[in-house]
Amino acid sequence: MRVVILAGGLGTRLAEETEVKPKPMVEIGGRPILWHIMKQYAHYGFKDFLIALGYKGEVIKRYFLDYYTLNGSMTINLSDGSVNVREKECENWTVHLMDTGLHALTGGRLKRLESWLKDDTFMVTYGDGVSNINLQDLLKFHRSHRRLGTVSAVRPPARFGGLIFEGDLVAQFTEKPQVGQGWINGGFLVLEPEIFKYLKGDSSSLESDVLEHLAADGQLAAYRHYDFWQCMDTLRDVRLLESLWQSGKSPWKVWE
Question: Could you read off the pLDDT of 78-87 as tens digits, one per residue?
Fold first, then answer.
């Protein structure tokens, strides 16, 4: 089963990092967040990736071109330029790096990949969010509901502590719970090829042109995920994810 990762947006809310690299290449623990997302999918057996490139896509291409060579030890013979790579620690992944346009919206990027996805169920997620969703359970849920799409519904962590009142008194104080802001689209979608009929071109949106129409047609299931999920929209989010990684308490690291 193929996995599409949308990695072409401008990342304007993270301009401190994205002036020189695309958002999926912002590092957590010395590795791009894109790598963390792919590690999660690979852990559950999904290792065939389509990376939908756009803004600064050449940075992502260069990363994967160098991945095999730069992971592990090497010996270089300077007289003839030969390189012997040893003790490699490479992933057993197939990575298709697909140019999907600089200005295409999320649905437009997906539409450009239709010929790669038209024959079977496929997965899609965004290149800026991590979670500990069990992706095999997600797929089983999708198949059991027999709909054209399944979205992973998550409850984002609140930015501020919450107060629960009894009259004029505070009955309970909750410190930044991962609840309270309602359910949102957390990415980690499973889709059927029939969804391409909702997409017309580069100006199509995955969210408004596909998910909204699927919901209206009774064809969108929601897999509720009650545990960890975190997007990386701002520098504050980057620092939070980095602190979790450095503490050894990174919930999305399901592969170990």
Answer: 999 888 887 7
